[in-house]
Design goal:
The longest helix is centred in the last third of the chain and has 21 residues. The protein is α/β, with parallel strands linked by helices and 402 residues long. The protein is globular. β3, α5 and β4 form a beta-alpha-beta unit. Helices cover 41% and strands 13% of the residues. It folds into two domains: 147 residues, Alpha-Beta Complex (Aspartate Aminotransferase, domain 1); 236 residues, Type I PLP-dependent aspartate aminotransferase-like (Major domain) (Aspartate Aminotransferase, domain 2, 3-Layer(aba) Sandwich), CATH 3.40.640.10. It has 14 helices and twelve strands. The strands form three sheets. A seven-stranded mixed beta sheet has the order 2-8-7-6-5-3-4, with helices on both faces. The protein binds pyridoxal-5'-phosphate. Its cofactor is pyridoxal 5'-phosphate. Belongs to the class-I pyridoxal-phosphate-dependent aminotransferase family. It catalyses: L-aspartate + 2-oxoglutarate = oxaloacetate + L-glutamate. Pfam families: Aminotran_1_2. GO terms for molecular function: L-aspartate:2-oxoglutarate aminotransferase activity.
Length: 402
């Protein structure tokens, strides 16, 4: 008999989508994976060199549970530059990816019964971790085309139990990038109600609109003492498997994470820590620039193809590397007897009929959404998107996948 806590968790919808793609591929079919939350590209040479040098130097010991000091210092420097707010190593904890940074934050600030405001569609780990901490997710639904919450909609769900708001801009899955006015208003609200802000900025390097990424601590410097700013190298350096993330926060949160990590995972992988430190010390930013250029181009090319959709609006895709389609219009137009009643059905037909793996919005708490990653190699992405458009446009005349 498993612990009660396990009933709080469902499996990862993204992983399930990728598993379905693997099963289809195992039958010999050509499947294009647009379900992955990562950019398919080799990691930077500087990271690989740093790892090899650390291995050759015989680096093998435990480190401080929240990371080696020079790495914490280098991250503080990077964040100071990026956010235009001063950080020191005292503010930084190095973690096993952003996921652990978020879990540290949840365990450090939440008590059983506390409520946490989450904007939905949302990355499912946010509510799962809130539940694990004994607290309650309170959702505010955001809508196409911009998927940005209004302040009134947030204020409407604040209660005496509200403890925190989780922000994720640029957003997975919607691609929304929050504007300065919204961030300032959320900051004012958090200060007014004495709430924490947990700001997941993992996709900060992937903004394609003119406004660029701005952290809430830049938009609203007064919010800093109640913010846990989470980020990671997973996406920006295409090293999702290396497990290197961090957060920046007031020192009491860093001390809490130090205790937590010392009793859970100990330090993040020491070789990865040295590899990233090397990258931060010697890199001139070419990798990040080139990756951005590639994604900006595939985004443009992809959006042009999506213009061919008849009953689905072209998404804004301002940030992250996802096209998030709102299928509600298309679903409403399908004939009453159609076997496609939800985005789940449509995701399934895309896999079966077009050989394209996608993630249905139900994974993110949205029955009408469909997420397609443009982190796939361009030569595979473009033909796959053409098939997606042809398949979606044919649904009104199609009774089943076959
Ligand atoms: N935060 C968001 C919004 C994500 O989409 C993901 C991964 O998909 C993560 C965090 C996880 O990052 P990491 O791999 O660094 O734990």
């Amino acid at each position: 008999m498993l612990a009660q806590r396990m009933t709080l968790l469902s499996g990862s919808g993204t992983a399930a989508a990728r598993d379905a793609a693997k099963v289809a591929a195992a039958t010999g079919r050509q499947i294009v994976d647009l379900a992955a939350g990562e950019v398919i590209i080799a990691p930077p040479r500087t990271v690989r060199e740093g790892a090899i040098a650390a291995i050759e130097a015989g680096t093998n010991r435990y480190t401080d549970s929240i990371g080696i000091s020079p790495l914490r210092g280098a991250i503080a420097e990077k964040l100071t530059k990026n956010t235009r707010v001063a950080w020191t190593a005292e503010n930084i904890a190095v973690t096993n990816g952003a996921k652990q940074a978020l879990l540290d934050a949840a365990f450090a600030i939440l008590d059983p019964g506390d409520e946490v405001i989450i904007f939905r569609p949302c990355w499912p780990t946010f509510p799962s971790q809130v539940l694990l901490a004994g607290a309650k997710p309170v959702f505010v639904d955001v809508k196409a085309p911009d998927y940005i919450p209004s302040i009134e909609s947030i204020r409407a769900v604040v209660s005496s139990r509200t403890k925190a708001i989780i922000l994720n801009s640029p957003n997975n899955p919607t691609g929304a990038v929050y504007d300065r006015a919204t961030l300032r208003a959320i900051g004012d609200l958090a200060i007014g109600y004495k709430l924490w802000i947990v700001s997941d900025e993992c996709y900060s390097n992937f903004v394609f609109s003119d406004q660029g990424h701005e952290s809430i601590v830049t938009s609203h410097p007064g919010i800093r003492s109640r913010t846990v700013l989470v980020n990671a190298f997973s996406k920006e350096l295409a090293i999702t498997g290396w497990r290197l993330g961090y957060f920046a926060a007031p020192p009491e949160i860093v001390s809490a994470a130090k205790k937590l990590q010392s009793h859970t995972t100990s330090n993040a992988n020491v070789i990865a820590q040295h590899a990233i430190l090397h990258h931060l010390c010697v890199s001139d930013g070419t990798f990040e620039r080139e990756m951005h250029e590639r994604l900006a181009k595939t985004r443009q090319d992809g959006l042009k193809i999506l213009l061919g959709l008849v009953d689905v609006d072209v998404p804004r895709a301002d940030g992250s590397f996802f096209f998030y389609l709102d299928l509600s219009g298309l679903l409403a137009k399908l004939p009453a007897g159609s076997s496609f009643r939800s985005a789940n059905d449509i995701s399934r037909v895309l896999l079966e009929a077009a050989g394209v793996a996608s993630v249905a919005g139900s994974t993110f708490g949205d029955p009408n959404g469909l997420r397609l990653s443009f982190g796939a190699p361009p030569e595979r992405l473009i033909p796959a998107l053409e098939k997606v458009v042809a398949t979606l446009n044919s649904l009104k005349n199609r009774q089943s996948a076959a």
